[in-house]
Amino acid sequence: QYQGQLKTRDQFLHLAATQEPKARTTILLFQAHLQFDQQQFEQAQATLNHIAQFEPKCPPEWYTLQCKLFLEFKEYSKGLNLLESHRELNKQPLIYVHLYKKMFVGVLTPYFEKMAFEKAHEFIDKLPKHLKTDIELLEFFAPVLLTQKSYAREMEHLIKKALKKETTIQAKLQLIGAL
Predict the structure, then answer these.
(1) Residues 6 or more apart from 139 whose CB is under 8 A from it?
(2) Which of 9, 39, 99, 147 makes a 20 to 30 Å CA pair with 160?
(3) Burial 26-59, CB ≥16 within 10 A → b, else e
């Protein structure tokens, strides 16, 4: 791969997948990761689609890579839907939370740009409970919604909860600085 022999790489991986059917999913996932790393996003998506056709229950790595592709394609709503409907990523909580936050910010940004605060608030209401007081997410949406009278009290409540929950001074200062 690093020598630019991408076609040869894919041929060898395909050959390995056909020779060892039990390892087919693993080999194809490996191929999709390599394609993603080489910024061959369409090919990686095609490989994941191929896996989904024959694999009734995709492994958590499949969901993780699919979400990364949704981020690359800026298909944030699809990513959120995938994360919410397939809780397999809960077994990998750091990756799940990181991807969820990125998708969430991607979905909310256009609403804030269009001043569609009610729609943005609907998404915030749907957030999992543990993420409503997440410092990073509050830094993103609280300053905008604090300017709106109808949401200011709720935002103040969430900020107070987050500050009580947060243990590091740096994170607290970061949130206060964003406000």
Answers:
(1) 174, 175, 178
(2) 99
(3) ebbbbbbbbbbeeebeebbbebbeebeeeeeebe
Please enumerate in sequence order all residues whose Cβ is within 8 A of that of 70, keeping only pairs 6 or more positions apart, or say none: 76, 78, 79, 82, 103
Q: Are 68 and 74 in contact (CB under 8 A)?
A: no
Q: Which pLDDT score, from 0 to 100, does residue 83 have?
A: 85
Token pair 């056709």 in the structure block, residue: 53
- Interatomic CA distance for residues 32 and 40, integer angstroms: 9
Q: 97-153 pLDDT, tens per residue?
A: 888 899 999 999 998 889 889 889 988 988 888 888 888 898 899 888 988 899 989
Q: What is the model's pTM?
A: 0.76
Q: Count of CB atoms within 10 A of residue 111's CB?
A: 19
- The H-or-E segment that residue 63 falls in is helix 60-72
Structure tokens at 82: 């995938």
